[in-house]
Specification:
With 435 residues, the protein is mostly helical. It has a domain of 162 residues: Alpha Horseshoe (Serine Threonine Protein Phosphatase 5, Tetratricopeptide repeat). It contains 23 helices and no strands. Helix 5 packs antiparallel against helix 6, helix 8 runs antiparallel to helix 9 and helix 19 runs antiparallel to helix 20. It is rod-shaped, with a radius of gyration of 37 Å. Pfam families: ANAPC3 (PF12895), TPR_8 (PF13181). Keywords: Signal. This is Tetratricopeptide repeat protein.
């Protein structure tokens, strides 16, 4: 479940297209720029407005054009020439902004950061420019995985903006998550998702993945289940249903665990062996063996589940619990032959016992005891004693129950059988004496 790095990097990349907000202003007219500068400070402290003179604008726009043509060296040379001209503070800031644009296009993020820092260091720049530059700085630091500086720049942006949007809260949550500040990340990601829902929109999948990662790190499984419910409903994928089932298992809710897996199966989302086997095991846990066996058998026919000794053994268990003994014997015989494990021969002996096939049962329980490594050897000795008793071999049955008697968990049952055998022997002796 744990995929925090992949989750976050996917989310970060989703924001790449909006990284160049400051430089995009070059497609606007000078009048549009001036209008944007004046409107951004309506409710903030007023800064003296400065203009971008036509000849400076033309030189900066020419540098932008060179950059768009990937003539980066010529673009930098053009900007260096502008640097030699006397400019007001706004023109200086926009020159630095264009340097950042050119460096960013070259993926020279270190110099782009330096240029943006020069923008915000310039006095008396419009707040709109300062805000967009701080936001761009935060994203550039995030690209370089410098999460501490990314968070510092973004917090400066938050301090300036009256109504941050949902994407800004998600961005800050990403940074806090990478800094392992999981408790601080949670309010931001919840705020972003709540804002989106209030607007009647669907939260982005990457946002829910971030929320999932935060809840997982905080070990908040109850809310993790709720988040995975959202992911499973809005973005149906097998992995989300399987993870939801695992969380229900962690919470001790086996019925909900089974419901999640069955829903995914009904939607045709479960295709991996592990997913189908998990569903079968969940069905067995709720005493629905026939359906579990059908899923395992179909999976093997479709080659989605390997016909390994382990999987055959599980299928044999399912058929046995479903009391489909003919099918159980065929499958368990294959499992035992493939695994050569004592436990599988023991299961085969159990099936033959249910069918009262005593000699076959004895043959398989002897193999199980010889191979060993049984979870409870005492159960095998009890089973062997029962088989021998039904074969009317009381002496050897007694020997088997005496072996079982050595195990604490089987002592009581073995004593009962030994007393029963003693009684049976006395009865037979009495009948023989009075015949």
């Amino acid at each position: 479940m744990k995929q925090p790095v992949a989750v976050l990097m996917t989310a970060v990349l989703a924001y790449g297209a909006s990284m160049l907000a400051p430089a995009a202003a070059w497609s606007q007219s000078k009048d549009q720029q001036a209008e944007a500068q004046s409107s951004s400070a309506e409710k903030k402290r007023v800064r003296r407005a400065q203009t971008l003179r036509p000849h400076i604008y033309k030189k900066l726009d020419a540098a932008r054009a060179l950059s768009d043509e990937k003539k980066y060296a010529e673009a930098i040379e053009a900007l260096n020439a502008v640097e030699k001209i006397k400019r007001n503070s706004y023109e200086q800031a926009m020159t630095h902004n264009m340097f950042a644009y050119v460096y960013f296009n070259q993926e020279d993020y270190t110099n782009a950061i330096g240029a943006y820092k020069n923008v915000v260091a310039t006095k008396n720049i419009p707040e709109s420019l300062e805000q967009t530059t701080l936001y761009s700085l935060a994203k550039l630091y995030l690209i370089q995985e410098d999460y501490k500086n990314a968070l510092a720049e973004l917090n400066k942006w938050f301090a300036m903006v009256e109504k941050p949007n949902a994407e800004a809260f998600i961005l800050r949550a990403q940074m806090q998550f990478q800094l392992e500040k999981y408790q601080q990340a949670l309010p931001d990601v919840k705020k972003a998702i709540a804002m989106t829902k209030e607007q009647g929109n669907q939260p982005k999948e990457n946002w829910l993945l971030l929320e999932r990662a935060v809840y997982y790190q905080n070990k908040d499984f109850k809310n993790l289940a709720r988040c995975l419910q959202d992911l499973s409903t809005l973005y149906p994928k097998a992995q989300y249903w399987v993870q939801l089932a695992a969380v229900y298992s962690e919470l001790g809710q086996p019925l909900k665990e089974l419901a999640a897996l069955e829903t995914a199966h009904e939607q045709g989302l479960l295709s991996k062996e592990s997913e189908l086997v998990n569903l079968a095991q969940a069905l067995l846990g709720q005493e629905i063996p026939y359906k579990a066996a059908a899923i395992l058998e179909d999976g093997m026919k479709d080659k989605k589940i390997e016909t390994s000794a382990k999987n055959l053994s599980l299928l044999g268990d399912a058929w046995m619990l479903a009391k489909e003994y003919d099918k159980a014997i065929v499958v368990m015989a294959k499992a035992a032959e493939a695994s050569q494990a004592g436990k599988d021969f023991y299961k085969l002996a159990q099936i033959h016992t249910e069918r009262q096939e005593w000699k076959l049962a004895l043959n398989n329980v002897d193999k199980a005891l010889k191979l060993g490594k049984l979870q409870q050897p005492s159960s095998a000795y009890i089973l062997k004693g029962l088989i021998l008793f039904n074969l009317d071999d009381l002496a050897y049955a007694r020997d088997s129950f005496e072996q079982a008697q050595k195990f604490a968990e089987a002592e009581k049952m073995a004593d009962q059988w030994l007393r029963y055998i003693d009684g049976e022997q006395k009865r037979r002796e009495y009948m023989a004496a009075n015949t």
